[in-house]
Design a protein that fits this description.
Blueprint: E1 9-13, H1 16-26, E2 30-37, E3 42-49, E4 52-59, E5 78-82, H2 85-94, E6 103-104, E7 111-116, E8 122-127
């Protein structure tokens, strides 16, 4: 038996409108489906990138904060591959997204940097 692919990444946000804007308007994900679940007072937003379903963005009333940044047990960060890392860094900073400096992966020689989503979830962009 083997796993074939990543199906999706689930993210819980504290401010649905802010996170929806961040993932769609800044990062460029496409909304595939948006559902309001009245019994949970919760939105579920399905997001894709280049036709591939990747993220479920959830809102819940008063979700707990992330335990620590970023070395809590569990998911450390999500990473996306990009072709022009410097252009992405400039673009994000022009949209008031604070970015760390570009670093070099000591094992691959590729460049990467980190930034945070509106709830401080660390996101890495890695040159492909």
């Amino acid at each position: 038996m083997k796993i074939d692919t990543i199906h999706h990444i689930a993210i819980i946000c504290s401010d649905y409108d802010v996170s929806k804007r961040f993932y769609t308007q800044i990062l460029g994900f496409k909304v595939e489906q948006e559902v309001y679940r009245k019994e949970r007072s919760s939105y579920k937003l399905d997001l894709s990138l280049h036709g591939t379903y990747l993220i479920e963005l959830f809102s819940f009333p008063n979700p707990p904060k992330r335990a620590s940044f970023p070395e809590a047990t569990g998911l450390r960060h999500i990473a996306f591959g990009v072709r022009d890392l410097k252009a992405w860094k400039d673009y994000l900073e022009s949209n008031n997204v604070s970015c760390q400096e570009i670093r070099i992966d000591e094992f691959t020689g590729k460049q990467f940097f980190f930034f945070n989503d509106p709830d401080n979830l660390p996101i890495e962009l890695y040159e492909i």
